[in-house]
What we know:
Layout: H1 29-48, H2 54-61, H3 67-89, H4 110-127, H5 131-139, H6 145-162
Helix pairs in contact: 1-5, 5-6
Amino acid sequence: xxxxxxxxxxxxxxxxxxxxxxxxxxxxxxxxxGYLLIGMVxxxxxxxxxxxxxxRIQEMFRFRSFHMYGIMGSAVLVGTISVQLIRRxxxxxITGQAIIIPPKAKTPMYKRYWMGGTVFGLGWGLxxxxxxxxxxxxxxxxxxxxVGMVSALAGTLAYAWVAHRLPH
Length: 168
């Protein structure tokens, strides 16, 4: 069992996460059922808000509708407020551990973000779905998303094979 360390943090700030270790949260079948139910509710919300609609995504990429930009903008706003509350109030995890959000690296890495964002955006535009809603679309009966899911898994596997050679 190896400990995962974040090189940006001091030894006393390291989160207590170990590869292969189990924790109190997520090890019982009942808690896994809870995660499954939360995922299903999230999938229904994505479907009902039309965030998984191929037509809505195409409208967004063609700048014909504000719908998807509104959904993403509200998600950014909620995320920003949540991170600020966690940092300023010292909110702890459900197990009582400190939640540490390290600051961004000072050196600009724009090239890799532009490249990664471009590949992600091309895949999203061509498929009509980003990785999260693929499962919601499969659950809604859009069988062609199996191709997208297999492609996303193949891309993840390819990244795992070359990750040790990439600058992180």
